[in-house]
């Protein structure tokens, strides 16, 4: 029996697999590009980090480390996923609106795309391939 090519292009849909991919890929990007470099070069980051909310450089860096290391690990695992997205979204919003307000959309596209990814996850939840789903059983 020949497979209908239109059916192959239009379904079946796997939204939970898509959420798993978005969670893991977004979390790994944040960890690799932002979190781990800040942790590995803590003293250099402390000297140069912006402090747009006037909390002090150390508090700002610790908050950034929380949002860029612990939260992505929780998001990737799908544990407390919606809650873990909130610090990421707050940090990204502060970064895009207060630290880099002069950036064009093209300059800040990575940040805006991360807002889209983590905003989607915050709205949708972790999906069935997550610790959140296992704990609900």
Automatic annotation (TrEMBL):
<keyword id="KW-0472">Membrane</keyword>
<keyword id="KW-1133">Transmembrane helix</keyword>
<keyword id="KW-0812">Transmembrane</keyword>
<dbReference type="InterPro" id="IPR051907">
    <property type="entry name" value="DoxX-like_oxidoreductase"/>
</dbReference>
<feature type="transmembrane region" description="Helical">
    <location>
        <begin position="83"/>
        <end position="100"/>
    </location>
</feature>
<keyword id="KW-1003">Cell membrane</keyword>
<comment type="similarity">
    <text>Belongs to the DoxX family.</text>
</comment>
<dbReference type="InterPro" id="IPR032808">
    <property type="entry name" value="DoxX"/>
</dbReference>
<feature type="transmembrane region" description="Helical">
    <location>
        <begin position="12"/>
        <end position="35"/>
    </location>
</feature>
<feature type="transmembrane region" description="Helical">
    <location>
        <begin position="112"/>
        <end position="131"/>
    </location>
</feature>
<protein>
    <submittedName>
        <fullName>DoxX family protein</fullName>
    </submittedName>
</protein>
<feature type="transmembrane region" description="Helical">
    <location>
        <begin position="55"/>
        <end position="76"/>
    </location>
</feature>
<dbReference type="Pfam" id="PF07681">
    <property type="entry name" value="DoxX"/>
</dbReference>
């Amino acid at each position: 029996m020949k497979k209908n090519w239109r059916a192959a292009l239009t379904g079946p849909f796997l939204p939970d697999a898509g959420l798993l991919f978005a969670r893991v890929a977004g979390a790994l990007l944040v960890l690799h590009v932002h979190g781990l470099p800040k942790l590995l070069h803590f003293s250099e980051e402390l000297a140069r980090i912006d402090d747009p909310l006037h909390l002090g450089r150390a508090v700002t860096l610790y908050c950034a480390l929380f949002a860029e290391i612990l939260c992505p690990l929780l998001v990737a695992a799908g544990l407390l996923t919606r809650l873990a997205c909130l610090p990421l979204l707050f940090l990204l919003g502060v970064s895009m609106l207060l630290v880099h307000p002069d950036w064009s959309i093209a300059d800040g596209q990575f940040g805006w795309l991360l807002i889209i990814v983590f905003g989607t996850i915050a709205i949708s939840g972790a999906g069935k391939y997550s610790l959140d789903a296992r704990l609900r059983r």
